Automatic annotation (TrEMBL):
Claim: Metal-binding is one of the keywords in the record: yes
GO biological process terms, semicolon-separated: mitochondrial electron transport, ubiquinol to cytochrome c
Transmembrane segments: 26-46, 58-75, 81-107
One GO MF term attached to the UniProt entry: metal ion binding
Keyword Mitochondrion in annotation: yes
Alphabetical list of SUPFAM superfamilies matching this protein: a domain/subunit of cytochrome bc1 complex (Ubiquinol-cytochrome c reductase)
Main localization (coarse): mitochondrion
Keywords: Electron transport, Heme, Iron, Membrane, Metal-binding, Mitochondrion, Mitochondrion inner membrane, Respiratory chain, Transmembrane, Transmembrane helix, Transport
PROSITE patterns the UniProt entry points to: CYTB_CTER
Family annotation (PANTHER family): CYTOCHROME B (PTHR19271)
GO cellular component: mitochondrial inner membrane
The Cytochrome b/b6 C-terminal region profile domain, residue ranges: 1-112
Protein's UniProt name: Cytochrome b
Length: 112
């Protein structure tokens, strides 16, 4: 468990919430780097394909909502409801990413 007094800068709060949500140390560090890498990959993905899909717009909205909630949970205390919510929203974070990449893949194949 993390000490109570440690809180990272605001731009890493979502990653800190994901790190605290996973009890295994190795998987926690892997998910920490994966969560930051996902944001880099979003910049590199072609966005002209995403304009054609209303599902993609909804998924991006859900992703931003989950990112904001994870950032809020990252600055909360290490207590029971916040740790459980961090687990739920960490799963949602990676699940929405998976769905977004599926939408990019299938919309790109249909319209290209």
């Amino acid at each position: 468990l993390s000490p109570v007094h440690i809180v990272p800068e605001w731009y890493f709060l979502f990653a800190y919430a994901i790190l605290r949500a996973i009890p295994n140390k190795v998987l926690g560090v892997v998910s920490l780097f994966a969560s930051i890498l996902v944001l880099v990959v979003f910049v590199l993905v072609n966005n002209y394909v995403s304009v054609m899909s209303k599902l993609n717009k909804f998924l991006v909205f859900v992703f931003i909502f989950v990112l904001v909630v994870l950032s809020w949970l990252g600055q909360c205390l290490v207590e029971d409801p916040f740790v459980f919510l961090s687990m739920v929203f960490s799963f949602l974070y990676f699940f929405v990413i998976f769905l977004l990449f599926l939408v990019y893949y299938f919309v790109g194949r249909v319209f290209m």
